[in-house]
Specification:
The chain is 69% helix and 7% strand. The protein is mostly helical. It has one domain. Helix 1 packs antiparallel against helix 2. The longest helix is centred in the last third of the chain and has 35 residues.
Length: 175
């Protein structure tokens, strides 16, 4: 059995969603940051009380770097690494790196990296939303429940991302 032949549509869909999420993140951070106070609570203790602060401008830049820079960096590194890789550590590597399959394997890995980038954009926007919510309260207070929910959802997404890759590459080597 082989990884379903990648349809250009599925790879284009990954890139489209990633780019749309980046555009959303730019708009979301720029518009929502205006509602923050001049000194923003950005770090919170285990009880949700603020114990770290930034100026409004510094937080705005920091939020953009996290919501855009981190995912772009991850996708850039993975795309660069996977699009030219010749010695990947994969299950059934002889099968997946055979000359007739290597381009398909690389394309799958690049698209998979783009999906990880999309999850990172969504998660970082969620973290920004939590900071907005915390700073809207007087005194500022982070909702630990919503923080835990976000972490759990992100980790479940990452686990599904890893499982999808493992299942995809487990197939094929038994032929």
């Amino acid at each position: 059995m082989e990884i379903a032949k990648p349809r250009r549509l599925s790879h284009k869909l990954a890139w489209l969603i990633f780019i749309l999420l980046l555009a959303f993140a730019i708009i979301f951070v720029n518009r929502s940051a205006a509602a923050l106070p001049s000194i923003v609570a950005v770090h919170f203790d285990a009880a949700g009380r603020p114990n770290g602060f930034m100026s409004h401008g510094d937080y705005w830049l920091f939020a953009l770097i996290l919501t855009l820079g981190l995912p772009l960096g991850v996708v850039g590194v993975l795309t660069l690494a996977y699009s030219r890789a010749t010695d990947l550590k994969l299950p059934n590597r002889e099968y997946w790196l055979a000359p007739q399959r290597v381009e398909h394997t690389r394309a799958f890995l690049v698209a998979h990296g783009v999906w990880l980038g999309a999850m990172l954009v969504a998660f970082m926007c969620y973290v920004h939303w939590l900071v907005l919510d915390a700073n809207a309260r007087q005194p500022p207070q982070l909702s630990n429940e919503w923080f835990a929910v976000g972490i759990a959802v992100f980790l479940i997404g990452v686990a599904a991302w890893v499982a999808t890759m493992m299942v995809a590459f487990r197939r094929g080597g038994s032929e």
